[in-house]
Design goal:
Blueprint lengths: L7 E4 L4 E7 L5 E2 L3 E2 L3 H19 L5 H11 L15 H13 L6 E10 L7 E2 L4 E8 L9
Parallel strand pairs: 2-5, 4-6, 5-7
Antiparallel strand pairs: 1-2, 3-4
Amino acid sequence: SLFGEFDAIVGSSRGVYLIETKWNPSWYAGGGTVVLQPEQVFRHKVFRAYLTAWRSEPHSSWADFSASIGCLLPVELAYMPVAPVGSRTARSLECVLTDLASRGTETHDVLLYLKISQHPVVASVQSPTFRLVTIDCPSDYGFIEM
């Protein structure tokens, strides 16, 4: 799929949280700033646009949605191919968008950083739309004991 996948999506009455997760120090640049891959940032833009379009008018199916999506997407995303009807990606998107449509209206981009004990602290994310959430992992392997 050209779309890729999120590490997590959380929907609540307060909003929708699109989550990328990092724990490896190779993912951050000098000065403790995480640099996301362009396709990760793009995935967030596309999904946000899909969710906005899905909420904008009722859609009975992915086929119905994909037929109207071209005029609902922002111009910079209009060239993005839509998942083919019946594909696994289309079925997944339809299910997730249907569920998230009734959740809180705010959509947030989140970078969840798992700070493994010996690694440096990360202070920011290069992409300005992302909110950084840090969780301390006391082990050297990134596991949190429950």
